[in-house]
User: What shape does this take?
Amino acid sequence: MSDSRSVAVLGLGAMGHAFATNLLKADFEVTVWNRSADKAGDLVEAGARLADSPA
Assistant: This one.
């Protein structure tokens, strides 16, 4: 098993956004993607990385 604490969250609707927020609070390395990148602004400010595509 890996010791990696990195997670990608694809889709920042109500559930995805809350999930990403909680992961950041738990010190995970979080990469986020959403069709509208503007929904990721507060998550990026909190430390998330914004992906250009879901790939």
About this structure: Residues 7-50 form one domain.
